[in-house]
Design a protein that fits this description.
By secondary structure, the chain is mainly beta. It contains 1 helix and 7 strands, in the order ββαβββββ. This is SnoaL-like domain-containing protein.
């Protein structure tokens, strides 16, 4: 079962819960934009990719846009029945937030 955890939106378990959270996030943040430096994706181990990002377009509690830096980790698991790799876990940590 897929797991999504974020310092912005909390923890969510299962495809349905993650989908509901994502739809709400993109409704609240229609102008969100991520940037990852060229070559910024790295294999943390054989099933995990990590990257640092800069994200804009996420409003703070007062509704002002922010610029956030953070790290995202995506772990994959091989589906035994299909042999395909599927996302098992996503973890997003915001390290710094600046109001624009």
């Amino acid at each position: 079962e897929a797991v999504y955890g974020s310092s912005t939106v909390g923890g969510h378990v299962g495809v349905e819960a993650i989908g509901t959270m994502m739809r709400g996030f993109f409704t609240k943040c229609p102008n969100v934009h991520w940037e990852v430096a060229p070559g910024g994706y790295k294999m943390a181990n054989e099933t995990t990719v990590e990257f640092d990002f800069v994200r804009t377009g996420v409003p703070n509690a007062e509704g002002r846009d922010t610029r956030q830096t953070g790290t995202e980790m995506v772990r994959y698991k091989k589906d035994e029945s299909s042999g395909e790799f599927k996302i098992a876990q996503v973890s997003v940590t915001v390290h710094d937030t600046q109001v624009l």
